[in-house]
Specification:
The protein has 453 residues and is of the alpha+beta class. The protein has one domain: outer membrane lipoprotein receptor (LolB), chain A. The chain starts with 12 loop residues before the first strand and ends with a helix. The N terminus is likely disordered.
Length: 453
């Protein structure tokens, strides 16, 4: 099943109608809309016509009463009740507001359902990100055929996007704090539901978002990432280091790995594109981490439009420390009793493989939340043009920051009946957005030292 390209203007769909990449900067009149009819980062501020999507009123900006940093996040919407459930028996009633992937999952797995809750527009960022967005909206430009960006730091570069590649760059450069660490688990389930947990200690230096930094000081780096495998024993001690760039043609991503068996650090050019993700059993590619990351040069990016879609959102139950991993990880798909879906306006970007380029995925359709620029769902097609995999970004507002980010990413392989979940944190410590690190802590030399500790 393919997403129809010829869509019409209606109450639930805003057609953008872009046949080619448009790289014109925003006008002063367009920028003036930010904080008025648009939110400070470019979403429609008003409710939809029938009120099923409320107006954005700022999102969650303060922690809940009783919350202490380091706690698992309490659910601000715990009193909400399920409005209805979508199953394989009634999906036709709701098909106009379902992704192609969700329709396929409902048809393939009778045990899967989508519990729909009231829509809560909880996404928010610090005021400095809003101020930076207004500033860089006047200066941000795509370079190198869209595979790099200049004239931007801190803010969302293209709050009123004119092309698909601009939407993807908004996702890549969205605010996720200045620095963060987390202890998470990954599970690649067999069709019967068996799995071995792989545990990671991750650290992020989100240099693009660091307060006060200039584009010159970025030195073309937007993100530094270090991941240490802590379990199982056969993998423990492996370390991955990644330096992500703003202009990927001028300077491609740099990556290194430390192997405890060899006790050496080596460059890792294969940590990119469709090479398998760490310990993913081949179910997830490197560029599926964080729903999409890395170089954009192998795809054509078409901005299809904006539509109201049921997507995973405010997934505090799935994030709860009251659950065990075994409660969540069930055969074929996550336990649907713990999943929350809401109606939100999402940008739709269709990525098709360029002529002469190679990738496992010939086509990907991305659904990007208008309030946060977080990718919340992806439909993935193989080289036979058949729907292959479905990705979901179950997200929450980490309100102590605040930032809206995934708590669990799930990539479902419809052809094998398998799926992989990465970000499991129910039985581990939480994100820490207050870590103090230097650039040297994300250097190849530090990787070598870390491997000997």
């Amino acid at each position: 099943m393919r997403l129809k390209k010829n869509i019409t203007l209606g109450a639930t769909l805003l057609f953008v109608g872009i046949a080619s990449v448009c790289w014109a900067k925003l006008t002063p009149e367009e920028i003036a809309r930010l904080g008025k009819d648009l939110t400070p980062i470019g979403a429609e501020q008003a409710a939809n016509a029938d009120g099923t999507i409320p107006a954005w009123t700022g999102g969650i900006t303060t922690p809940l009463a009783g919350y202490k940093k380091g706690d698992h996040h309490q659910d601000p919407f715990a009193a909400d009740k399920i409005e209805f459930s979508i199953t394989n028996e009634n999906l036709e009633k709701y098909s106009d507001k379902l992704t192609v992937g969700h329709q396929a999952m409902l048809k393939a797995y009778p045990t899967f359902k989508m519990n729909v809750y009231p829509t809560r527009r909880s996404a928010s960022s610090p005021q400095r990100i809003y101020d930076a967005t207004r500033k860089v909206a006047a200066t941000a430009e795509l370079v190198n055929n869209g595979d790099g960006v200049t004239g931007t730091v801190n803010g969302i570069p293209f709050p009123i996007p004119k092309s698909g590649i601009e939407v993807i760059w908004n996702h890549l450069l969205r605010y996720r704090g200045d620095m963060a660490s987390r202890q998470i688990a990954q599970a690649a389930l067999t069709r019967g539901g068996d799995y071995t947990l792989v545990k990671f200690d991750d650290e992020f230096n989100l240099v693009y978002s660091k307060a006060g930094i200039t584009e010159k000081e970025l030195d073309n780096k937007i993100l530094l990432f270090k991941q240490v495998v802590t379990a199982p024993a056969r993998l423990a001690g492996n370390i991955l280091l990644v330096h992500e760039t703003l202009d990927q043609i001028k300077e491609p991503r740099a990556a290194w790995v430390y192997n405890p068996g060899q006790r050496r650090v080596r460059r890792a050019p294969n940590v990119s594109y469709d090479n398998p993700g760490t310990a993913s059993d081949g179910i997830r590619t490197n560029d599926q981490f964080d729903m999409f990351n890395g170089a954009t040069d192998r795809y054509n990016w078409e901005l299809v439009g904006k539509k109201e879609i049921y997507v995973p959102y405010n997934s505090y139950t799935l994030h709860s420390d009251k659950l065990k991993y075994k409660d969540i990880l069930t055969p074929l798909h996550l336990n649907p009793d713990y999943l929350r879906y809401e109606l939100h306006r999402v940008w739709i970007v269709d990525a098709t493989l360029k002529d002469g380029e190679r990738h496992l995925y010939k086509r990907r359709t991305f659904y990007i939340d208008e309030d946060s620029w977080q990718i919340v769902a992806v439909d993935i097609y193989d080289n036979r043009d058949q729907l292959w995999r479905v990705s979901e970004g179950h997200s929450i507002n980490y309100y102590e920051v605040p930032t809206f980010w995934t708590t669990l990413e799930v990539h479902t392989d419809l052809q094998t009946g398998r799926y992989i979940a990465i970000g499991l944190d129910n039985e581990s410590s939480m994100y820490n957005f207050d870590i103090k690190r230097t650039l040297n802590d994300f250097s190849p030399g530090d990787l070598r030292r870390s491997g000997h500790r």
